């Protein structure tokens, strides 16, 4: 079986290859590994009434007794039908146990191994990727599309809809771990069960840290053209006591910084090399957003943004109420401009 790309994992789970009897799920997202392992197990045991159809083993136990995995896999189910053996890899090597299984007679059981993040050179991963009887499925933290699917699944199950701004705020604050993220969404659905539609205030009230957004997130959302998310984050910041007039000050400083870096890009350097060359001046979590912003904003347009942000800051000092409204408009206008630049 060739190595399966992360983008093809869901397709494999929906229709596993019939000649594959051993599956390795690995990656840094332990919740996603466990969720996908459960999905495979439930599918394999569908229609079975055998209370002993599911066997759980610890990898460290198999390291001491390598032959046990093959023995368990080839044991006939008491009531007939398929058996599923779930193995959680530990700190000890289990390659000998897996090698004996993959190179012996094909069992009636499905073997599911759950492991942490494995490099391409890791022996366990290599065994599965090279064997025609095994499949190695990478489980990486959810990207935006994965988060949206998760939210849609839970909304559909709960019979709820969600406002676009509420969705953007929710996506921005879900945990990286799949199971933790799903639990957060389910908690939100339970909170809003009688409303029919989830609004931004519901997200801010329920999701952990949603009312404590960092200004950097709102600024980066604006400069990369994520208009709905910018609006949602500004609203969340306001709920937490940070007005748009404060955010626009951070946006002004960021625009000036981007303008300096854009000069290097205009001089012939790539956006990535400019960002990497800034070192610790850019937080590692912001580097991707800064690189995207540099690709969307020209020097001339950045100067225009600087002027608008500066006007909003000046107005805030003279007329706080008017300045607040002007600051929000300036930030949303920047997000809309960045979005247009990507078309």
UniProtKB/TrEMBL annotation:
Key words, A-Z: DNA replication, DNA-directed DNA polymerase, Nucleotidyltransferase, Transferase
Top-level taxon of the source organism: Bacteria
Gene Ontology biological process terms, A to Z: DNA-templated DNA replication
Keyword hit for Transferase: yes
Main EC class the enzyme belongs to: transferase
GO MF annotation list: DNA binding; DNA-directed DNA polymerase activity
Entry EC number(s): 2.7.7.7
Catalytic activity: DNA(n) + a 2'-deoxyribonucleoside 5'-triphosphate = DNA(n+1) + diphosphate
Transmembrane domains' residue ranges: none
Single GO cellular component term: DNA polymerase III complex
Keyword Mitochondrion on entry: no
Entries under NCBIfam families matching the protein: holA (TIGR01128)
Family according to the record: Belongs to the DNA polymerase HolA subunit family.
Protein name (record): DNA-directed DNA polymerase
Lineage: Bacteria, Pseudomonadati, Pseudomonadota, Alphaproteobacteria, Hyphomicrobiales
